[in-house]
Specification:
Strand content: 25-35%
Shape: globular
Distance between the termini: 27 Å
Radius of gyration: 19 Å
Order of helices and strands: EHEHEEHHEEEEEEEEEEEEEHH
Structural class: alpha+beta
Number of strands: 17
């Protein structure tokens, strides 16, 4: 499931974050790339232990903890501390798949990367190129969202970032270990949760019975033996 989540951060939070990011010291983005990814990665990144990364990471984690749509879609068990990158002057990130296991810096903990997330800090009109392109079983999806918006997608997906030919693309990226490992099961649970929420809000004559019936049959197809 690929899902755009609007307004994870408020306009004021984005403005504050940009002040910090625009004055920060950036380093070569290969510092967090695996051996294979490093060959495709060409961008800049905030040092993981920097004050700017820690302050903004805490802002993001607090916002995610209050975002009902993110919680419903991701069913998060653990969230990797957010990282921050910048693309400019033709920089890009070639097609790759994220590492299955990530070591949490400064701890003995690891997380399994079930979901990947990108939170945008630059408006689309600020730069040309820089689309996040995600490939899944339903095709190729190009994503370029407003500042403060987030895209969530399975970490198993092949994906890349197109070259930025004007301006700068600034974003945060991180991974989530979900309580439900399987993407198909997680998607069905999300669809069911959304339908139930609609049912709770809708007048009786607008009850989403058809949607709930479809979810029921999809669960049967997945789990029933005949």
């Amino acid at each position: 499931m690929l899902l755009a989540i609007p307004e994870v951060l408020s306009a004021e939070q984005v403005k504050r974050a940009r002040r910090i990011l625009d004055s920060a010291e950036w380093v070569d983005g290969k510092v967090t790339a695996g051996r294979q990814s490093a060959q495709a990665k060409n961008n800049q990144q905030l040092p993981e232990g920097s004050g700017a990364a820690q302050e903004l990471g805490e802002m993001i984690l607090n916002a995610l903890g209050q975002n009902a749509l993110f919680i419903s879609a991701a069913l998060p068990l653990r969230v990797f501390p957010p990282l921050f990158n910048r693309y400019a002057g033709g920089q890009s990130f070639g097609t790759h798949v994220d590492n299955a296991i990530r070591q949490v810096p400064g701890t003995g903990h690891q997380i399994r990367t079930d979901l990947s997330a990108t939170l945008f800090f630059a408006m689309p009109e600020e730069y040309d190129g820089g689309e996040l392109v995600v490939e899944d079983t339903y095709g190729v999806h190009s994503v370029k969202l407003p500042a403060g918006h987030l895209v969530l997608y399975p970490s198993t997906s092949l994906h890349h970032v197109r070259p930025v030919t004007r301006g700068a693309r600034i974003a945060s990226f991180f991974w989530i270990q979900s309580m439900v490992r399987d993407d198909g099961q997680r998607t069905l649970l999300f669809d069911l949760d959304v339908a139930i929420q609609k049912l709770n809000r809708a007048p009786l004559e607008d009850s989403p019975v058809v949607q709930l019936t479809g979810i029921y049959h999809n669960l049967m197809r997945r789990w029933a033996e005949a």
